[in-house]
Here is the input.
Amino acid sequence: MSQATASDPTRLIRHLEELTLNTAPAIHQHFYDGWVLRASGTETHRSNSVTALHESTLPLDEKVAYSESWYRLHQQPIIFRVNDALSPLGLDDLLQARGYSKAAETVVMTADSRLFSALADLPLGVKLVERDLAESLADLHHMKGTAPQVMAQEIKRQALWRGPQTVLNLRSINGVVCSGMARLDGGHVGVFDIYTPENQRGKGYASILVQYLLAWGARHGARTAFLQVLVTNEPAIAVYKRLGLAPSYRYWSRLKRACVDEERAKINHDEC
Here is the structure.
């Protein structure tokens, strides 16, 4: 990340937003007056939402109506990702007035990835395994109880990524105890899909796996590490802070009420 970008909060957030979109490919993507509209038929917000990256020239109500029609065309609910730095002034209030509820507030955390050259010792009986992407995603979504058609679409979406990546699992005699992946974009490594089965939580597996994923990034030339976590996931945020990651900014989603209720059910089920 350049010194100029790091010293300008808005440029920094725009750069991080671009990184999070680049490393989370979408099946359908459309650019519209500074906004990016993405649809994939999966659960990942970054790949199924509207993100404002640049200044708008058209009226907001016109842009919201256009976006709604685009998502109707793709036969899936519309989600707006909103933040204080890049979203147009008045967008959040307009969405609230149109019946969109706030959900899934997320914090983006960053660190110097070169901090992660030293690796934690693996617990007794636990081994680190590099996995094929499709096989690991299938295991992940079986653990989560994802619907088969959504799981198949997610595997299709993730396969669109063509950059460097690693998919790692921690395994014990009980099977997968933690899974996750890292992707490299330029000099930046992003960590995604960290998941620990409910009966294996509280044992430090996520902390260990994140260290190995970030160390992989550092070995491959990454200077900056980033990840995203729900603000309600306080245990995970505490773990990431202990590892040296710090909050950079927050964003939240705006969804229609039925979608909010469904999203909360997913959040209660998953460890994000």
About this structure: The longest strand covers residues 100-112. The chain has two domains: 3-105, 111-250. The first helix runs from residue 3 to 7.
